[in-house]
Write the structure tokens for this entry.
Amino acid sequence: MKHALIVDDHPVMRGGVRDLLQQAFPSLTIKESSGGDGILDEICGSDWTFVVLDISLPGGNGIEILKKAKAACPHMPIIIYSLFPENQFAARALRAGAAAYLAKDREAHELVAAVKAAVEGNPARSASTRPERRPLLSDREIQVLTLFGKGMSRKEIAQFLHINAKTVSTYKARLLHKLGLRNLVELVRYAAEEKLVE
């Protein structure tokens, strides 16, 4: 173990992951990043032993960042550690090149185990043993669902994602249909139950 990068826009979460990994790997030097502009250069600009990457980041989608990072530095192990449920995002993250995918509700030792496996070059995996009971949503649908869950309005979401407000309404209608929900209140409750929002 040499040095690692933790990318997460929540300082408390970064600190917790840093402390956990420092305890598990005492000789490891850890750098933290909140993401944002230049994150791809930050990931590929150094020979990290591994990277722990969140999905929801300011100014970018973690899956897209993952894809670009794996194209630029394919041998670097990247572990996705996210609030998004594994039954919605694990498969696409692993297809995009993640060494492992863990939701943030997993036990601490599972993250340590995933890091060890990734560094040792073991096959990509998800820590989840839960069956996929939820309808499969697209990346954008989950993003819109998460923003509704955070209390943002249709216009606020449109501005945040740089899309038309009517397009947000279309995503909302798709979400209600796919999830079998009746209104925005149920959509917000679903986002909370699925731990898409803190």
Notes: The two ends are 32 Å apart (CA to CA). Residues 165-179 form the longest helix (15 residues). The chain has a mean pLDDT of 87.
